[in-house]
């Protein structure tokens, strides 16, 4: 089927994929650290079997040991300053984490908890005195810690947590208390077994005044026993990630010295005066949270990697498994030669490539923001928004891709010996941890609607509604980047107002214009609906609830536009050649299948005729046929260590 | 939010739900057997903890014991003749299975393997001599067996399996051989540990002639040891269902007597003459498979029940969990009062109700076909098609619903102590076992395209293409039931050709007409594309591959139409009152969200304007708000034993 396309009348020549060259392109500047991680993954490949073979307790110990041993190779400490034993390279630390996600996800998440969340909080919220005391032992994994933010009663809404830290000026110490069971810390990785320290988020109370949520370093365990006043409970077995010891923490008047406050953004003087360089409490809180943006970038990258593992198995299986005779009278047909099988897998493959490049862009931005000395607030907020949005899209994509790939491998995909069982169970929580995806997209929308106004952080849902309804729609739109970019459409595409009818479907400018139009139109729509609701006298909270699906949709549209831009940009930079043609096919497949998925919206808003919508469907089918002969090379270029695919029944 | 709707200007009065009355309506005629199963589920509720607590071996034994003990209560043998210790009621056996699916799914699947697949094969493919020898001990669970059809190399395409059964006239026996590893029986439930007998599907060879696939009773284990010539391997741990001992079987010249052939549809005389009342080999094969239709009806029902469990947890949680202040300045808002949360859960709730009633209809049909003496072939084929289609839609719905509900319960949903982990892992295989969903939908489409022609069973994909291309499109369409039903549209809806623009969105006739139009239009489109491809000289197999997504879409459209019809019919029969109003809301929500999901198609085909499409979106939102206050009652009416929800962290 593919050969008929090798030389078409349009001059299209079917490319071939040089796997090694494409792999080098994908690994990019971080190839050395990625290769170090690949070597380690192969060396510790047994962990995939341990996950099944060992009981939960033994597996937790095994995962801890592996994490400590990985730390000794330097791969987990890339993000810490060299002075404390780290690698001094934020981008490399994310790249290492992304690559580690090809392997067992308990190891990944334990690494994330220890070095990303716990270590990251000490590094970014603490100051030199904390760095000196904790970082050297933390970077080696000798000192294990946990990140105690979420409570049973409050996950997404961290500002409403119940744990209290009251300053006692007399003893110059903070007293931490869990007022009730809803305020217990819950689902805390490393808490049930291994953490000696916890970074605890609590409502700070100084001299009877509430100062909002702050972070404290609290010893929770010593010699394997809970510290005095600390109660620890095991969260027990989970759907997956059973090598990570999640648990619950209660504090019963636990006293820690004044220095336990991580004081980069706020301090309490010995005599009990609260001081912060950031006056606005909401802004202060979100600045603290913002330093933890690395966690979301890491999870997004991990989600892309798990999608790759699933697709690598399913594509390679479909390229060897035959079932039913079809095009031949005697030989059974390869699954990947069936139109529906291509439709199931190849748009997911294209989207995975798209997310890969979008992740590259966010990682690069993160590296710049965290490596540069300058504090550009707008850049930080945009980064936080991108990280939140990409985390949501990439993790949903992973859940969907793993499911589709499992089903595409039939009964064999259900066996524990193959990789899907673990992949599916372990990755499931990605969509809700490090921020629930819906809540994250609301955050993205809030940024768009307020154009990352400095008031941004202080706005709850109702605050946002009030803010937006105070602006003219035009003002709102003029500020958006989609608007600025759309203004260029008429220069680039023919047909003026009919650009959407006359442009070629495979023209990147057309594809970009479609996604920009959608974003801007949706944004205006949300703003109008919010205004109308408030004008009609409804409670802003009720207005928000009614418009909420629209709010989340605009955020999704925004992030998809950014993903497409990153992909287009990357392909444009490439020198001419087969790689560029092959990635161009994936780019078109991603762009058109994205438009196709939302073609109802484009038709409803006059940007797509029924005829053209059908033409896009045909073009997507055609692109699938063109990508099909490249599919195995495209998954090989991810360079996943073969041991990580671990599917003897599927890949032989 | 809901109260503003209690008395609207349109005369709509918000109903209340009498949970007990609705529960009685849902349980219907099988209430007694369902209550027996509920009692048993509660008595054996510990099994949900056993699934986590016990190792795989111990859990398998426990599940076996429970299945045998359940058999003693009569609930698992309902479908067998009374003469052999059964209940003599096919419909009741399905109802019992559906209800059992509220509980641990290993118990369910082990029950299905023993009494449905193994017992069903003996009952439906065997004759009296098999019934007398096996059924009495099989019904009690004393004699365990397995159903050895699937092979490593062939799952969906059973006609191509490799196991051979050669008749040896001299010894009057069959010799079973596994020619290679691709022909080993695989994923066979009960095979790894408990089965003494296997119903083995193999290519029958008599006097050097191939007679196609037939079923044989083969002893595979005695005193815990494999029978001579039989090799058994354990499939090991699976993603879920680890209480079921799936395994692999190889046969090395295993000899069984002539009577081992299950000979309802074919016999071999002692001197080696093959005889069958069904001359056409393809038709014979599909007649044999057709008797196993109960398996698919059972899985469809089980999928609906697992969706109910997930929704019951998520809806009840969302009706008590508060997060963020929104509509009030002081009190946090219930999750279920957020627009997006309603959008996530309530259309799934409506679709679950719709599938419930569709399942009722298919179960009733099954009961009639299998209880009536008359052999109406067309009725049988239609039943097989419905069962296949509903199985596909219901199992995909379950996968999607469980995932959405898990995410809607956040981190708590990820803990093993709550129900989602087990639900998700155990139900995952539903979409690919008892027939891969895509293959099943192709079967449905084949039935539609050939109007269940007697040639039906003999047609492979290419045969179907040739058959269809031999018909005039008009002939094809005139035969379809959607066509006949669409002819009535003009009588029922105003506006003649503009019926789609002028009818009320909440008019069931409009909703039905939309789904009928879609089905008929798609069917004509598929037929045209097949014809065109063949006319242009392409290979029928290639033509099929190119049209395959369209083929599967038409099958989905057909089944959704049947589901809607079943729901409409059920609501029409109800006496006026709150139940009718409440179910009417769910019906509208199901119908309109189904149209909404495919609104792109309706716009592309001129049956929905952009404006009307947006109006449907608003109506769905409005219906969500109306259903919201009823949601808890609607899930309570499923009468799921509270122990089965097992979500202490979520439901308190």
TrEMBL record, chains A, B:
<dbReference type="Pfam" id="PF02770">
    <property type="entry name" value="Acyl-CoA_dh_M"/>
</dbReference>
<dbReference type="InterPro" id="IPR055060">
    <property type="entry name" value="ACOX_C_alpha1"/>
</dbReference>
<dbReference type="InterPro" id="IPR012258">
    <property type="entry name" value="Acyl-CoA_oxidase"/>
</dbReference>
<keyword id="KW-0576">Peroxisome</keyword>
<feature type="domain" description="Acyl-CoA oxidase C-alpha1">
    <location>
        <begin position="290"/>
        <end position="449"/>
    </location>
</feature>
<dbReference type="InterPro" id="IPR002655">
    <property type="entry name" value="Acyl-CoA_oxidase_C"/>
</dbReference>
<protein>
    <recommendedName>
        <fullName>acyl-CoA oxidase</fullName>
        <ecNumber>1.3.3.6</ecNumber>
    </recommendedName>
</protein>
<feature type="domain" description="Acyl-CoA oxidase/dehydrogenase middle">
    <location>
        <begin position="146"/>
        <end position="254"/>
    </location>
</feature>
<dbReference type="InterPro" id="IPR006091">
    <property type="entry name" value="Acyl-CoA_Oxase/DH_mid-dom"/>
</dbReference>
<feature type="domain" description="Acyl-CoA oxidase C-terminal">
    <location>
        <begin position="509"/>
        <end position="648"/>
    </location>
</feature>
<dbReference type="GO" id="GO:0003997">
    <property type="term" value="F:acyl-CoA oxidase activity"/>
</dbReference>
<dbReference type="Pfam" id="PF01756">
    <property type="entry name" value="ACOX"/>
</dbReference>
<dbReference type="InterPro" id="IPR037069">
    <property type="entry name" value="AcylCoA_DH/ox_N_sf"/>
</dbReference>
<comment type="similarity">
    <text>Belongs to the acyl-CoA oxidase family.</text>
</comment>
<dbReference type="InterPro" id="IPR036250">
    <property type="entry name" value="AcylCo_DH-like_C"/>
</dbReference>
<dbReference type="GO" id="GO:0033540">
    <property type="term" value="P:fatty acid beta-oxidation using acyl-CoA oxidase"/>
</dbReference>
<keyword id="KW-0560">Oxidoreductase</keyword>
<dbReference type="Pfam" id="PF02771">
    <property type="entry name" value="Acyl-CoA_dh_N"/>
</dbReference>
<keyword id="KW-0274">FAD</keyword>
<dbReference type="InterPro" id="IPR009100">
    <property type="entry name" value="AcylCoA_DH/oxidase_NM_dom_sf"/>
</dbReference>
<dbReference type="GO" id="GO:0055088">
    <property type="term" value="P:lipid homeostasis"/>
</dbReference>
<dbReference type="Pfam" id="PF22924">
    <property type="entry name" value="ACOX_C_alpha1"/>
</dbReference>
<keyword id="KW-0276">Fatty acid metabolism</keyword>
<dbReference type="InterPro" id="IPR046373">
    <property type="entry name" value="Acyl-CoA_Oxase/DH_mid-dom_sf"/>
</dbReference>
<keyword id="KW-0285">Flavoprotein</keyword>
<dbReference type="GO" id="GO:0071949">
    <property type="term" value="F:FAD binding"/>
</dbReference>
<feature type="domain" description="Acyl-CoA dehydrogenase/oxidase N-terminal">
    <location>
        <begin position="33"/>
        <end position="142"/>
    </location>
</feature>
<keyword id="KW-0443">Lipid metabolism</keyword>
<dbReference type="GO" id="GO:0005504">
    <property type="term" value="F:fatty acid binding"/>
</dbReference>
<dbReference type="InterPro" id="IPR013786">
    <property type="entry name" value="AcylCoA_DH/ox_N"/>
</dbReference>
């Amino acid at each position: 089927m593919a050969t008929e396309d090798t030389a078409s009348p349009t001059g299209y020549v079917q490319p071939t994929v040089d796997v090694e060259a494409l792999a080098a392109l994908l690994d990019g500047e971080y190839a050395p650290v990625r290769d170090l991680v690949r070597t380690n993954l192969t060396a510790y490949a047994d962990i995939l079997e341990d996950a099944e073979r060992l009981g939960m307790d033994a597996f937790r110990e095994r995962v801890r040991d592996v994490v400590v041993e990985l730390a000794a190779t330097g791969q987990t400490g890339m993000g810490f300053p060299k002075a404390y034993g780290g690698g001094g390279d934020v981008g490399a630390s994310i790249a290492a984490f992304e690559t580690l996600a090809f392997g067992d996800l308990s190891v990944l998440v334990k690494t994330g908890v220890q070095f990303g969340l716990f270590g990251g909080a000490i590094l970014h919220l603490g100051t030199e005195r904390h760095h000196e005391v904790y970082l050297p032992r933390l970077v080696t994994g000798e000192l294990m810690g946990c990140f105690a933010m979420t409570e049973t009663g409050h996950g997404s809404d961290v500002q409403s947590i119940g744990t209290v830290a009251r300053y006692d000026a007399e003893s110059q110490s903070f007293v931490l208390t869990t007022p009730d069971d809803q305020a217990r810390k819950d689902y805390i990785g490393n808490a049930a077994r291994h953490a000696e320290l916890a970074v605890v988020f609590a409502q700070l109370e100084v001299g009877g005044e509430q100062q909002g949520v702050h972070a404290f370093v609290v010893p929770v365990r010593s010699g394997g026993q809970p510290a005095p006043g600390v109660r620890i409970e095991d969260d027990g077995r989970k759907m997956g990630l059973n090598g990570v010891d999640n648990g619950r923490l209660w504090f019963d008047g636990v006293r820690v010295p004044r220095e336990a406050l991580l004081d980069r953004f706020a301090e309490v003087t010995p005599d009990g005066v609260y001081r912060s360089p950031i006056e606005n409490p909401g802004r202060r809180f979100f600045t603290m949270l913002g330093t933890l943006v690395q966690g979301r970038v890491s999870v997004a990258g991990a989600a892309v990697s798990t999608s790759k593992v699933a697709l690598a198995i399913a594509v390679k299986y479909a390229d060897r498994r035959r079932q039913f005779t079809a095009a031949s009278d005697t030989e059974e047909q390869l699954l990947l030669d069936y139109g529906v099988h291509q439709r199931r897998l190849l748009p997911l493959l294209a989207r995975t490539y798209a997310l890969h490049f979008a992740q590259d862009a966010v990682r690069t931005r993160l590296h710049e923001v965290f490596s540069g000395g300058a504090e550009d607030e707008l850049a930080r907020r945009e980064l936080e928004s991108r990280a939140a949005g990409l985390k949501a899209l990439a993790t949903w994509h992973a859940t969907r891709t793993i499911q589709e790939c499992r089903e595409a491998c039939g009964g064999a995909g259900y066996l524990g010996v193959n990789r899907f069982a673990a992949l599916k169970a372990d990755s499931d929580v990605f969509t809700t941890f490090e921020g629930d995806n819906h809540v994250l997209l609301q955050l993205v929308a809030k940024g768009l609607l307020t154009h990352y106004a400095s008031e941004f952080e202080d706005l709850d849902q109702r605050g946002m509604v009030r803010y937006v309804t105070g602006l003219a729609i035009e003002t709102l739109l003029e500020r958006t980047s989609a608007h600025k970019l759309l203004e260029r459409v008429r220069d680039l595409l023919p047909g003026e107002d009919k650009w959407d009818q006359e442009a070629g479907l495979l023209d990147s400018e057309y594809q970009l214009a479609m996604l920009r139009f959608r974003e801007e139109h949706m944004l205006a729509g949300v703003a109008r609906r919010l205004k109308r609701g408030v004008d009609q006298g409804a409670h802003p909270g009720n207005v928000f609830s009614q418009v909420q699906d629209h709010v989340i949709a605009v955020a999704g549209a925004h992030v998809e536009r950014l993903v497409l831009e990153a992909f287009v940009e990357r392909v444009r930079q490439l020198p001419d050649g087969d790689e560029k043609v092959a990635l161009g096919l994936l780019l078109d497949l991603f762009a058109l299948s994205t438009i196709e998925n939302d073609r109802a919206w484009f038709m409803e808003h006059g940007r797509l005729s029924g005829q053209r919508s059908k033409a896009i469907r045909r073009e997507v089918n055609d692109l699938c046929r063109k990508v099909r002969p490249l599919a195995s090379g495209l998954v090989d270029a991810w360079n996943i260590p073969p041991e990580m695919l671990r599917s003897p029944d599927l890949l032989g």
